[in-house]
Structure of Sensory box/GGDEF family protein:
Amino acid sequence: MIGISFIVAFIASFIALDSAGKVAISSRRESTFWRLSGGATLGMGIWSMHFIGMLAMKMSMPINYHLSLTAFSFFIALISATVAINIAISGNTLSTKRLLIATSILSAGVVTMHYVGMYAVIEHVAITWDRSLILLSVIIAVAASGVGLWLAFHLRQNSRRALINRLIAAFIMALAIASMHYTGMGAATFTHFGHTAHDGLSTLELSIWVCAVTLVILGIMLVVSMVDSQLRTSRLADNLHQLNCQLEHQVHFDALTGLANRTQIDTCLLACLRHSKLHQQHFALVFIDLDRFKVVNDTWGHHIGDQLLIASTQRIFTCLDDSMTLARLGGDEFILLVPDCNQQDISALLTRIADVIGEPFTLFEHTIRVSLSAGSSIYPEHGSTLHELKVKADMAMYHVKQAGRNGWAIYHPEMEAIADTPPTFFTRIVASA
């Protein structure tokens, strides 16, 4: 029974410490539950440890207990532990004043519970007290309460060593509780007198009820705590996975339009180049630039400009199929990858895109008209490397701009005859890389 009483105190202390740790990472409603359940579990554990320890006493006389005093001692432990735990672990810091108040409440409750429980012995048993041991038990109760509450607050952080630290702390708390109890027990000398009839609870009855109820409740609390920890771990894993997915998306996609960014399109281009070489297929690379986009930004503001970019990409998407990849490189500059195509396919596609972009946009009651300039190169006719294809597509787009914008062109060698070509789409990309 002595071993069982220590185990009960240890489990109750651990649950109280674990509940205190959950307070800091829980919502307001959950935090209230863990504060109340942690304090109540500690109080019940202290009371159960006390009575299981008393039931372990070997005496030559029958011992019976008043039901009312026994129940009263239980509620003293329950209420004092719950109040003390709530005072100690509430807030971000544990001030000396709060610690002293909580320690006073818990130690007073523990001492009162212990000696009320001792007086619950039916009156045909007389008790003689050793005052020095009573004083020592009170000192131990105060010290144990202070240390326990201090540990409950400072072990709230859920670090890697939290479980080990709480197990060690629970062992220390259980040892302190047991020391106080058995010191208090040692202060009492029982003397039997009178008859043996009784109307209270017998030792056997009380031992069965206390052990059964205590172990069931502590078991339930342990299961609840373990399930909660498992659910928290699962939620954290899900949140971490979602965060990683978001970060991965941000690395490869444009935040405004949701299109692939430069990193992603370069990956797609390399994959398409390898595939086309292996299967001897054609693919097209298209540079697209919205004409007069800067005027829109300067006239109506960047908010309208952003909405224009989003609306433009949505219109372009209506002309594409799932095999094509549209990416935004920055500002109003886009790149389009069209796999497995020929010059006629690209001509038809760019015509459709130019037509849909040329339709008026209505944004926040403003009617806005823009056009596009696009240039394309085709693998392998215009180059065998991505660098060559980008240079040729840039030349084709610059040719459109030189011709007055609002159009598209596919590269042909005559475009290289244009002298003094300034840095345009591709050269700006290289410069910013």
Notes: Confidence is low (pLDDT under 50) at residues 419-423, 425-433. The chain has two domains: 2-230, 262-432. Residues 203-252 form the longest helix (50 residues). DSSP finds 13 helices and eleven strands in the chain.
